[in-house]
Amino acid sequence: MSTSTPITADDRRRLWHPRGTLCAVCRQPTRGFGWFDPHRSKRPRPSVWFCSMPCQSFWSRLARERFAMVDLTKEERAAITATMKRVALLMDEIGWATPLGDLTEAQVRALIEEAVEGFREAMSDIARAQTPEVPF
């Protein structure tokens, strides 16, 4: 006969939270804010996770407007434009005449990191700007 210890609230929370998942809006690590498709009754229901309430609210608004997004949204297009400016500054340092095949691994890595970080920051800023401030 084995004795088992009761499951605590921390244990349940640890099992529930999606460790290692990135925010669906800005790609930062999630912090427990989630969204489940309310129209699907069969399990598992599609779900996405977020780093903050502004990102969650932003996604929920987009989901209400049109969940089956195929094309880029106007917010994503704005984020890409903001990212292009950051990547262009880095390309100025590298040199615009440099062929892509001649870039070093460090230069390619820097370009990719600048593009990803720029897009993430722009999407986060857009979500924050479109979501009312939470009073607490």
UniProtKB/TrEMBL annotation:
It comes from the Bacteria. InterPro entries: DUF6511. This is DUF6511 domain-containing protein. It comes from Ruegeria alba.
